[in-house]
């Protein structure tokens, strides 16, 4: 009798064997909805900043253990890794959820609103899940329960990566991200493919978005110091003016995107965000400091933009008789969805979301440290709708703001698509 489903399964583009688990996933995910919402609200009300997610981590670890999943705690400071070995041999599929909140004071009137406060960079602030990582944790806890319930049917191993500090740790002398550190601690060594999702406050519930190849930008910090020679403001000829030189450099940098980057392949951004120099009307200062951000969509483009920034800044300074020191700090690489894996999993996304609910995402100039996992093994990062049905995205508060709000109606779809990734991938790669 089982053979009868073969043509249908082949039509959907997925190998036989595991798609038959989809109805069971659907049933289990729906049954878990209220539990996932409850977990999410509890985490939302108790947000923790990067590398301080101890309460969240304990909740996750206790839950995974209760499901019989092997648990490792304290990975990359506060991360939790769960390993669920299926009943049959096969590949290892990693699923990732980030756990950290942000130094934002919640303004949304919810019964489970965060009232947590802390001191951050010397300032009093609230703490809020203003990027929706609370939903990622709750959804992945739900996925763990769904998959643990079909353990004997799984053709491979599922690795749950609950990651701290996606938003980064910016302390004196330390700049790091949870994903980077998890990779350094070896979590990706035995993994064949990695999947992650991000909830979107401006994408309607019921929708899933993704794109193949570069999807989110890589981000780097830029610092340029222009050294001139101090002079009286009334006799500029007696010095070298770093302010005029800096103005030329800022303008020169604009030509990188317009004249050097192949914008038909992918856009890039160079933004100077601050300029500091001088103290009063009639003193030409000795130096000017500029800081900014660079966004690129791949290693080659990133190398070109970095090279041109350095050339433009140093040569413009040289032409003025000044000197420019350029310092670029690489932060996250671009989030690049492996094209082969993306193509392979397209039918799983369509099957989970349904016709008309799959969005071809535009490029996003924001960044995600999921990229560190993707640099190790093929990975796919998708977006999940979290805006109430019929909402207007242009009037809906964006991520990282005090009014950020997530509609909980998309959690079941999140569980289903992540679970489909696991069983469908295993079915194809066993
Ligand atoms: Zn964020
Ligand atoms: Zn985020």
TrEMBL record:
Start and end residues of each Peptidase M20 dimerisation domain: 218-317
InterPro entries: Amidohydrolase (IPR017439), Bact_exopeptidase_dim_dom (IPR036264), Peptidase_M20 (IPR002933), Peptidase_M20_dimer (IPR011650)
Superkingdom: Bacteria
Signal peptide: none
Keywords associated with the record: Hydrolase
Protein name: Amidohydrolase
Species the sequence originates in: Algoriphagus oliviformis
Lineage: Bacteria, Pseudomonadati, Bacteroidota, Cytophagia, Cytophagales
């Amino acid at each position: 009798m089982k053979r009868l489903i073969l043509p249908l399964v082949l039509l959907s583009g997925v190998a036989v064997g595991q798609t038959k688990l989809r109805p069971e996933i659907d049933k289990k995910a729906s049954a878990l909805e209220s539990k996932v919402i409850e977990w999410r609200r509890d985490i939302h009300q108790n947000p923790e900043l990067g590398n301080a997610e101890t309460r969240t981590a304990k909740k996750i670890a206790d839950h995974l253990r209760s499901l019989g999943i092997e648990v490792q705690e304290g990975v990359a400071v506060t991360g939790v890794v769960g390993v669920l070995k299926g009943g049959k041999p096969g590949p290892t599929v990693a699923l990732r959820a980030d756990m950290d909140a942000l130094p934002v004071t919640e303004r949304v009137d919810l019964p489970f609103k965060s009232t947590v406060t802390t001191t951050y960079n010397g300032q009093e602030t609230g703490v809020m899940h203003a990027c929706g990582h609370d939903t990622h944790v709750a959804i992945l806890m739900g996925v763990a329960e769904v998959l643990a319930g079909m353990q004997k049917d799984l053709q491979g191993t599922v690795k749950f990566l609950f990651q701290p500090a996606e938003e980064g740790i910016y302390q004196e002398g330390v700049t790091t991200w949870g994903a980077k550190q998890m990779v350094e601690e070896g979590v990706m060594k035995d993994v064949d493919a990695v999947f992650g999702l991000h909830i979107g406050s401006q994408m309607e519930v019921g929708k899933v978005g993704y794109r193949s190849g570069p999807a989110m930008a890589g981000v780097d910090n830029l610092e340029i110091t222009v050294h001139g020679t101090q002079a009286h403001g009334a006799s500029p000829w007696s010095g070298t003016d770093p302010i005029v030189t800096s103005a030329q450099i800022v303008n020169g940098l604009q030509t990188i995107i317009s004249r050097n980057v192949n914008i038909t392949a992918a856009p890039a951004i160079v933004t100077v965000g601050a300029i500091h120099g001088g103290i009063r009307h009639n003193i030409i200062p000795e130096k000017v400091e500029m800081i900014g951000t660079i966004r690129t969509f791949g290693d080659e483009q990133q190398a070109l933009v970095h090279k041109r920034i350095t050339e433009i800044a140093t040569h413009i300074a040289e032409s003025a008789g000044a000197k420019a020191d350029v310092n670029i700090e690489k932060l996250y690489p671009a989030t690049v969805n492996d094209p082969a894996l993306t193509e392979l999993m397209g039918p799983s996304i369509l099957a989970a979301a349904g016709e008309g609910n799959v969005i071809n995402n535009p490029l996003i100039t924001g960044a995600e440290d999921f990229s560190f996992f993707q640099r190790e093994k093929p990975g796919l990062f998708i977006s999940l709708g979290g805006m109430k049905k019929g909402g207007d995205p242009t009037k809906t508060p964006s991520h990282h703001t005090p009014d950020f709000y997530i509609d909980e109606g998309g959690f079941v779809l999140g569980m289903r698509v992540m679970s489909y990734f696991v069983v469908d991938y295993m079915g194809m790669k066993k």
